[in-house]
Amino acid sequence: MLRRFLTASAFAFSASVAGAQNDPTVPIVITNVNVFDGVSEELIEDVNVVVDGNLIVAITTEDVVVAGGLVIDGGGRTLMPGLIDTHTHIMLHSDPVTQLITQDTFEQGARGAARAKAYLDAGFTTVRDLGGNCFGVKNVIDAGVSPGPRIYCGGASITQTSGHGDFRMTNDGHPRFDGFAASGVANTTKTTIIADGVDDVRAAVREMLFRGASQIKVHAGGGVTSFKDPLEAAQYTQEELNAAVEEAERYGTYVTVHAQVNNAVVASLDAGVKTVEHGLIMEEETMVRMSEEGVYWIPQAFLALQDVSSNPLFQDPIQNAKLAKVNAGARQAFEWGIKHGVKTGWGSDVFGANEIFATFRQEFAFRDEFYEPIEQMRQVTGVNGEILSLSGLKNPYVDGPLGVIAEGAYADIILVDGDPTQDIRVLMDSNNIALIMKDGAIYKDDLE
Question: What is the pLDDT of residues 90-118, one digit of tens each?
């Protein structure tokens, strides 16, 4: 529990931040912790960390006294940045098809808020959402109405007709031929948006930027979830991809692409994208190019490498057959990514019902085959923080960097029982996370 003050002043609880257990206006000193700062190769032992407002203001091995401050004894635990997931779908809370067909927008919002809170409860203080109308959920979290992580919301992912993001039912119309209202729930609720041709792609990007997108998500190739497109299909012409990147960059942000297969990745690199999602069926020379150009790669080991026959997300025979191809290429992709030093972020891409979401931290276990624990710790904090910063002029959180423990950084902090540098799997169990702080506010305190 919260321990004591450096003065005898009474503790005034603030209800201004939903779920917060402290008054964020009171300075906090966290003592007796071993710090992973998001970038270093080892822990910094026996450190004191000072938080004032929503920022970290001091990190020192010297004794610290802050007048009127609150002291928390970390008890030798590991202090590290709040975890970051750079590939989420907050609004896809239940079975995706059922949700999009049967739920009204109020239910989707409520479910999205619940999913956001579940991320925060797991120690993820920031997420990047890559497909879904998450702006409302982000707004209520930022306003302190509902607890949840920071959300870098991309809004609707942009797809060509019959592309990976075209989730219309057979009896739905097409926005160009039959009118927007008849174009299916995924399109009308802006979970995805269909855009064909350079002009429509530009308009779709501009629309998402108007809604408040931090980054733009484009489907550049086939995917596992969708039914109409072959996995190997390259989607969008070079001119269309170029237009999307140009429009995003004019607003000071960037494009990330869904691209599993080499042809889609190469076209995306030619257009100037900054991050590639998935990319598990690539050629080695493409990995070399990504490394040389500093393009970030966000693969998913858990979805790709678990037993194809029992994967709960992709049980339809069409999906299962496409997943088998991804599964066959994934290990080689990870080996090449490591060999060539590709900047690799941490993202789960888990969506669906609660029982499926509960498994998303298995990403740590599946990556454990390829990465040392300290490297995964960097991926899920410091590297992901770099990815978030690519939003530039559209970055919604500009007071300090994320994903690091550093003076001037946001006070997004977790205290971990155990040493994840020795066993990354301690981060998979919420019981091992004794304290969760976001923006200087404490949301969980199980310290003893």
Answer: 998 877 666 766 778 888 899 999 999 99
Please name the residue that has the structure tokens 């003065």: 7
Residue range 33-52: average pLDDT?
96
The Cα–Cα gap between 159 and 166 comes to: 6
Dihedral sign, Cα of residue 153, residue 155, residue 160, residue 166: positive
Residue 310's pLDDT is what?
A: 63
Token readout for 130 is: 């890559």
Tokens (6 digits) for 252: 């000071």
Each as own residue / partner, the long-range contacts of residues 318-321 (CB below 8 Å, 24 or more positions apart, any chain) are 318/227, 319/224, 319/225, 319/227
Residue 179's contacts (CB-CB under 8 Å, 6 or more residues apart) are: 173
Backbone angles phi, psi at 335, to 5 degrees: -65, -45
Do the strands 150-153 and 124-129 form a parallel or antiparallel pair, or are they unpaired?
A: parallel
Q: Are 207 and 250 in contact (CB under 8 A)?
A: no
Q: How far apart, in whole angstroms, are the C-alpha atoms of residue 266 and residue 281?
A: 12
Q: How far apart are CA 216 and CA 130, in angstroms?
A: 8
Going 297 to 125 to 369 to 278, the CA torsion angle's sign is: negative
Instruction: Report which of 270, 263, 265 is spatially closest to residue 232, judged by C-alpha positions.
Output: 263
Name the nearest CA neighbour of 53 among 401, 409, 416: 409
Name residue 30's beta-bridge partners: 49, 72
Q: How many CB atoms lie within 10 A of CB 136?
A: 16
54 backbone dihedrals φ, ψ, rounded to 5°:
-105, 15
Of 442, 448, 378, 443, the closest CA to residue 77 belongs to 448
pLDDT cut 90: percent of the chain above it: 70
**pLDDT (tens digit per residue) in 115-163:** 999 999 999 999 999 999 999 999 999 999 999 999 999 999 999 999 9
The angle, 0 to 180 degrees and rounded to 10, between the axes of the packed helices 317-339 and 284-293 is 60
